[in-house]
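Troubleshooting entry. The earlier prediction with magnesium ion gave an output that would not parse, so I re-checked the input for stray whitespace and re-submitted. Clean input:
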Amino acid sequence: MSAAPTSSGATSRDAALDQRCVDTIRSLAIDGVERAGSGHPGMPLGMAPVAYALFARALRHNPDDPLWPDRDRFVLSAGHASMLLYAALHLTGYDLPLDELRHFRQWGSRTPGHPERDRVHVTPGVETTTGPLGQGFGNAVGMAMAERFLRERYTDQVVDHRTFAMCSDGDFMEGISAEAASLAGHLGLGRLVVIYDDNQITIDGPTSLAFATEDVEARFRAYGWHTSSVEDANDLDAIEAAIAAACAQDERPTLVRVRSVIGWPAPNKQGTAGAHGAALGAQEVRATKQALGLDPDQDFHVPADVREHMMAGCRERGAAAQQAWEERFSAWRERKPELAREWDAAQAARPIEPVGPSLPVFDPGERSALATRSAGATVMQTFAPLVPTMVGGAADLAESTKTEFKEEASFTREHAGRNVHWGVREHAMGAAVNGLAQHGGIVRPYGSTFLMFSDYMRPAIRLSALMKLPVAWVFTHDSVGLGEDGPTHQPVEHLLALRAIPGLVVLRPADAAETAQAWRVTLEEVEGPVCLVLSRQDLPVLNRDALAGAEGLARGGYVLAHADGQPDAILVATGSEVALALEARTTLAAEGVDVRVVSMPSCELFAAQDATYRAEVLPAGVPAVAVEAAITLGWDRWTHAAVGIDRFGASAPGAEALTRLGMTSQEVAGAVRDALRAAADTAVA
Ligand SMILES: Cc1ncc(C[n+]2csc(CCOP(=O)(O)OP(=O)(O)O)c2C)c(N)n1
Ligand SMILES: [Mg+2]
């Protein structure tokens, strides 16, 4: 590799100054890692010219207003290279002072390792990066979909930007990127430009260990991408030419493969896995700076001309680009007041108007039983006009999960409709839904599949919670009650597994009315991600005249059925088991036992209520029994005993599977009697 950029194209630029900028990125990155004593110097050293080409030239961004809606998006999928991003952000004038770089990876700094995007953007300029390789690539696909959808809806007067991503070998070894690339190719996301750091090194050594035969470019071409390559990461002109060519593509996404040397020019570590994930060491840092012609005694040093060139230049260009957009945007607002109103609501991730008044009312007299997935379908149609930029779909199960907007078009290559056909690609769906939300302007993007397949998208669900993204995960076929498909399809541990994710709201409505409320709460009240867990089988439409109204769902758990005064016992049930609890209540009432039934569609929302409310619903000292067609682990937080299914299910008609696995009102009534006996024994003892 050459020590200085090759000059393959005539430019009016000051090549020496460009080189100093690139090398300043390099030196800041290795200083940050060195000071932290941890981090990843290899990719920042190798890919600094690409970061420079992007941040100082190609990206249309305004460091003084990192959230300007029409900015280009940049995703560092290989989030381990975060010092590369921090150095670029600092040098281009974002509010990320050198002191933050000095506190790389330290508690409370704005320069964490693998910076995720928080709802409020912890680090200005970080759209997102990812820890789990491949997720960021999927996010970028979602962002490009968002741009496409919004451009079509609001015209390129107001939406006209690109999504760039930087990926590593690991990103492309991960299967999720195959799914996401295939989808991006299918949709022809021409505004997506992905740069691949082909340094032929991963943690365990050279890619020849495990990635020798794969031709990534050929694979992407097969997906329908445009590809190009740059054979020397130090060839700034070639990089810029490749990016420019990518930006000229509007029909197909582009992969630019850049051959780099990890850790270049660290004399002892370049080209080896040793440069990937550990500080270089003081001697090697000095030697690297010397190789770059920098003063080895200077730390976190930014030459004045570099600062002037990168910072002033980017801020000036960014401000001008944003200003031009603001003018177009104001003119558009005046011409299109209705759309502008919609835009404002969408930017705030909210419906145009409250959805409550338009929600359907389900009358048990008209229809006595309805699957909550079917109720969900009806509810979605009623709120659809109030969230015109809500986009989503199922992973090839729309017929089953019933999550389509009926009167709306599909999201295709030709037209960005609201119904996305994700294909059988749960991993990519998860990451792209997150990307749709990260982009902004798309209200509650959603992805849907069977509850059991949530396992295939768990990393994305986890990241949605970590980043507090306003997305909806709609999971149907929520218990062994789905029946004949058998135990591979019957979720038993999934509710608990989802509840274990901090910040994720899991909502399992008991009937049609609760399903309507569940969507309302999702669209209007919960800031972060929500899992809607719905039944395949019909459930009784509860007679709300004789019971409490479904609005109680907003508090997570509420008293559904209860005689006045202190009950003898409490049944706490979720989803399909609420009807079972009501039956058991009737049985026990005939025996003189007064049972309260609490519907608990969301443990998280209930836990967030104040102690007084929680004690009203679940008074201390009253034996409480949980009922849920799933493993019982976790219910001891709320109840003294639980009726559930602590084993895998079995292939049988749904009703029989439920009965044989103990989900009967007799079993539930028996558990209440046991709990009352246990309480009495304790009292005597
Ligand atoms: C899903 C996932 N698995 C494993 C890791 C741990 N990990 C971090 S980087 C990396 C691979 C490093 O190779 P590459 O992606 O080529 O990055 P480079 O070293 O070239 O910068 C691995 C396995 C991860 N971050 N995410
Ligand atoms: Mg690599």
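This one parsed fine. The pocket of magnesium ion (ligand 2) is lined by residues 168-169, 199, 201-202 (CB under 6 Å).
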